[in-house]
């Protein structure tokens, strides 16, 4: 493959890694990425870790 195409592929991979880091939500208690978004009691959004059970908003 030409070097220019390889650079473009590398840029796309790097962009995807950055996007994954930005959008992924980790549990502040255990660091797990197994987090579910749930509706809170007052209609707000809360999160719960399915690994350790920690919840937060």
UniProtKB/TrEMBL annotation:
Name-wise, this protein is: IS1 family transposase
